[in-house]
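Q: what sequence does this backbone want?
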């Protein structure tokens, strides 16, 4: 119940912030920066300038009323934005307090068995409960941005917890080719790929071997998908490639899980490329010697993904695609343009 309540507020925060951002953009557009007059308006103004002087006193009253109405409308918009900001701040503060309380509670209940040196049985049961809630409640929820950090924190307490979480997310991806027995929705698959990418990229406690393992699984998944894709009708492939260059929404939705997996791989590479490379001497990676580094075997097949007909760099988030292109180029892994 508590996690559900936190999730509801989390989504509410995102909706309010999106609405507030939209209102602020509308206000900027309405106020304008410059006012332009076309040539006909300018000529008419010059021609009627003398008449305008005669009627100046009559028009001053109506101008004053118009200015007053404009100022009233502006004050109304400003007031609405002020109330929206205040409401958003209250909701954010509520979410912050609930998250802090929940994490503090978890910290007190994460016990280590003094005899075995491992997490206690009660703690493991609690983790599995939160993992089940994550899988059934958080994963399918759109616009959840902070609630998942409860499970991320829990996973950081024990290496086995991290393995179980990662295995659950990979399991949600399922087989690359969707079958009639696949009960996991595309929305859940996309979310699982996104959480895999963000967790592995940011979780500093994950070892290089774990990072390589996850990257290898996703690269293999994407390559298997492309094997299936390339077996389709050649004309369909050519047509799809031409459409993918423009990244139409329908074509992206058709391969949405593939693009989500590809983006997760690119995102992980941006943050964990040092864990995916090895120096010839076996020592730490030196950025001045990137020409001589050896890349792990788990990355084999990534170039095929990037340069495939599906063209994932055009379908992924622009910030991720651009950052990957920059990091891949600087590390001499591959040269591509986003």
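A:
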């Amino acid at each position: 119940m508590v996690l559900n309540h936190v999730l509801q507020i989390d989504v509410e925060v995102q909706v309010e912030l999106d609405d507030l951002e939209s209102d602020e953009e509308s206000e900027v557009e309405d106020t304008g920066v410059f006012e332009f007059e076309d040539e006909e308006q300018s000529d008419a103004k010059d021609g009627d300038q003398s008449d305008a002087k005669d009627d100046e006193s009559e028009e001053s009253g109506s101008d004053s009323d118009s200015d007053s109405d404009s100022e009233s409308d502006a004050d109304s918009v400003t007031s609405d934005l002020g109330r929206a900001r205040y409401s958003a701040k209250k909701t954010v503060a509520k979410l912050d307090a609930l998250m802090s309380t929940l994490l503090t509670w978890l910290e007190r209940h994460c016990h280590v068995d003094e005899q075995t040196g491992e997490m206690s049985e009660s703690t493991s049961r609690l983790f599995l409960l939160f993992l089940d809630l994550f899988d059934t409640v958080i994963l399918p929820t759109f616009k959840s941005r902070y609630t998942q950090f409860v499970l991320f924190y829990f996973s950081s307490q024990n290496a086995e917890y991290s393995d179980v979480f990662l295995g659950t997310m990979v399991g949600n991806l399922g087989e690359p080719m969707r079958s009639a027995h696949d009960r996991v929705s595309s929305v859940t698959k996309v979310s699982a790929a996104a959480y895999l990418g963000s967790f592995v990229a940011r979780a500093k406690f994950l070892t290089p071997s774990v990072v390589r393992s996850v990257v290898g699984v996703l690269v293999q998944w994407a390559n298997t998908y492309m094997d299936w894709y390339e077996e389709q009708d050649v004309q369909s492939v050519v047509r799809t490639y031409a459409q993918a260059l423009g990244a139409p929404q329908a074509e992206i939705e058709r391969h949405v899980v593939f693009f989500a997996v590809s983006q997760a791989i690119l995102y992980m590479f941006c943050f964990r490329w040092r864990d995916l490379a090895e120096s010839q001497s076996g020592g730490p990676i030196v950025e001045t010697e990137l020409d001589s580094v050896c890349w792990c075997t788990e990355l084999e097949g990534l170039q095929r993904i990037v340069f495939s007909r599906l063209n994932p760099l055009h379908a992924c988030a622009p910030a991720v695609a651009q950052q990957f292109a920059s990091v891949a180029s600087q590390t001499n892994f591959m040269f591509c343009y986003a």
